[in-house]
Design goal:
single chain, 228 residues, mainly alpha, Serine Threonine Protein Phosphatase 5, Tetratricopeptide repeat, 2 domains, 70% helix, 0% strand
């Protein structure tokens, strides 16, 4: 399929539209506005045909279409992405999955990833704040060469924000804590210690974040993998 242009891509996405999928996504708390209901594997297939393309990624993002934005996060070039672009895209987040896909596909590969994770954790907007913690979780999983110090710095942030009652924030705080704690034995000890401190806080949300994390981090499965 020659070189895919912006209009062709939007037509292609629209042709893969699935109204039933949109209903399903809405049930999972995904904003049903400007959405076609195209599956992630199909979006990835299109991304493969396009290849890396920074300019096209900007156009697709500007379309405001849910799947076009996920596609933009896959084809953009992390080397070219600026802090300003990351801030602009984060401001546009209106759905947890677009937020997570951006962190997973693109933001974690930029040189600003750790700094943005820290900065966004202070943000008042639900999905921007979620992005901060989603980024921590993604870095913990994929940045294999990073030293522990980088992740140890996140524990005080996780502790500070363990009171946030908003669903998409509290789940991301919990996700970050669990992923960092599954990285290696040293960080596992730190994460469990942090979770136990959070558990002592006078907040139902904090107690949930902590207990859920402790259950996984102390589990036989995680412990034997880290000690093996």
């Amino acid at each position: 399929m020659g070189k895919m242009q912006y209009e062709d891509i939007l037509k292609k996405l629209e042709s893969l539209s699935d109204p039933r999928a949109i209903d399903g996504m809405a049930r999972f708390g995904i904003n049903p506005k400007n959405i076609y209901g195209v599956s992630i594997p199909n979006i990835r297939k299109i991304a493969k045909e396009i290849g890396m393309n920074h300019i096209l990624a900007q156009q697709l993002w500007s379309s405001g279409i849910h799947e076009a934005r996920i596609l933009a996060s896959i084809i953009d070039n992390p080397e070219i992405v600026t802090e300003e672009q990351m801030g602009k895209w984060a401001k546009d987040f209106d759905s947890w999955d677009v937020c997570d896909q951006c962190c997973l596909n693109l933001f974690k590969k930029t040189k600003f990833a750790y700094q943005q994770a820290d900065e966004w954790s202070y943000d008042k907007r639900e999905f921007v704040k979620r992005a901060g913690f989603a980024l921590m979780a993604c870095l913990a999983i994929y940045d294999k060469k990073a030293d522990d110090k980088k992740f140890e710095n996140f524990f005080s942030i996780i502790k500070r924000e363990a009171f946030d009652e908003r669903n998409y924030v509290k789940k991301a705080v919990n996700w970050a804590l669990r992923q960092i704690g599954k990285r290696n034995l040293n960080l596992n000890k730190w994460a469990i210690k942090t979770a136990k401190e959070i558990q002592q806080m006078d907040s139902i949300i904090a107690k949930w974040i902590a207990s859920d994390a402790i259950r996984e981090l102390e589990s036989k499965e995680v412990q034997s993998r880290l000690q093996g």
